[in-house]
């Protein structure tokens, strides 16, 4: 068996986020601090992704003052509490191969110190020394104590309601950092 650890290249990886509300949506990016994937005989078997919550950027708000105010609100306790919780983590606990390069990843997602089991489909391209992983994870923010303007917790929000689900679109590149072979 050949085991290869692929280290995420943060500068070549990103997460696009989309949040929706009654009157539209907002989108942006969030950075990956670090992480890795473990492949055994070319098949993904584990790994983790560390997300830097303080790196959240809003792309659709072009007025700099409004953008800064919005970014500050996302960093506050109403949303990600980035001062207390500067990182979110996704730890892969199972990878079910669906085809040669398609997997269903299950793992523990921790946001604001709260952990839940989540799963999502990914496509992995393996070029021996480099892999790329692409997939979309849909998250119910209320499970992580992000309740601001949620219809589950507040009434009469009208057009200020923010939907509970938000999307994280992963586009990750990782390089082989070491390999080992065992004869079993």
From TrEMBL:
<feature type="domain" description="Lipid/polyisoprenoid-binding YceI-like">
    <location>
        <begin position="5"/>
        <end position="175"/>
    </location>
</feature>
<dbReference type="InterPro" id="IPR036761">
    <property type="entry name" value="TTHA0802/YceI-like_sf"/>
</dbReference>
<dbReference type="Pfam" id="PF04264">
    <property type="entry name" value="YceI"/>
</dbReference>
<dbReference type="InterPro" id="IPR007372">
    <property type="entry name" value="Lipid/polyisoprenoid-bd_YceI"/>
</dbReference>
<protein>
    <submittedName>
        <fullName>YceI family protein</fullName>
    </submittedName>
</protein>
